[in-house]
Design goal:
Shape: elongated
Number of domains: 2
Helix content: 55-70%
Oligomer: single chain
Number of strands: 5
Number of helices: 7
Distance between the termini: 54 Å
C-alpha cells in the first residue's frame, strides 16, 4: 500500500465523525445522508473508487450519487438566491441590451432612493454582476434580462429575471 492509499483510507475512515463535526442533519438538508457522505469524502480528496469500496457499492453508483448531490446543492443555492431576491429592499431590473457599464449607476441610484448602502466600487459591482449572471452577459452587453437585488446589509445578488 502506498502513502497515497494510506491517506485515502484515513480520509474515508471517519466519514460519520466528519459529518457530525460539520453539523450535517439529513432532516434539514437538501442532501441525503449518502450524498453528504460522498461529497464530504470527495472534498477531502477520496477517489470515487475508494468511496465505492468504503460504502460497498460501485464506482458508477458513487458517480451518480455525486452528480445528484451537486445538482441538489445547485438547486439549494438557487432557492436561497430566489428567497433573498424576494426580500431585497432594492431590486433593479436590467433589460437585455443594457451596457454592463451602466449597471452600477442604476444600482447606486436605486440604493440611494431606498437608503441602502452598497460597499462595492463600480468595477467590483460590474464583476459581481458579470460573474453571477454567467452567460447572460456577452462582452459588455446584457443578453438576458437580470434582476440585481441589494439587501439591507449591502450584499448583492443577481438573478436572471426571465
Amino acid at each position: 500500500m502506498s502513502d497515497a492509499d494510506g491517506d485515502e483510507e484515513a480520509v474515508t475512515a471517519n466519514v460519520d465523525e466528519l459529518l457530525d463535526r460539520v453539523g450535517f442533519d439529513p432532516t434539514e438538508s437538501a442532501l441525503t445522508r449518502r450524498q453528504a457522505e460522498v461529497l464530504a469524502l470527495r472534498q477531502r480528496g477520496a477517489s470515487q473508487s475508494a468511496i465505492a469500496e468504503l460504502l460497498g457499492t460501485s464506482r458508477a453508483n458513487v458517480s451518480s450519487v455525486e452528480a445528484s448531490a451537486r445538482t441538489n446543492v445547485e438547486k439549494a443555492r438557487e432557492t436561497v438566491a430566489f428567497a433573498e431576491a424576494l426580500k431585497a429592499p432594492v431590486q433593479v431590473e436590467v433589460e437585455t441590451e443594457t451596457d454592463l457599464y451602466d449597471v452600477p449607476q442604476r444600482v447606486y441610484d436605486a440604493c440611494d432612493e431606498a437608503g441602502v448602502k452598497v460597499s462595492h466600487t463600480a468595477p467590483d459591482l460590474m464583476k459581481i454582476v458579470s460573474d453571477e449572471a454567467g452567460d447572460a452577459i456577452s462582452g459588455r452587453k446584457v443578453s438576458e434580462a437580470l434582476l440585481v437585488g441589494v439587501s439591507n446589509d449591502g450584499s448583492v445578488r443577481v438573478r436572471r429575471s426571465e
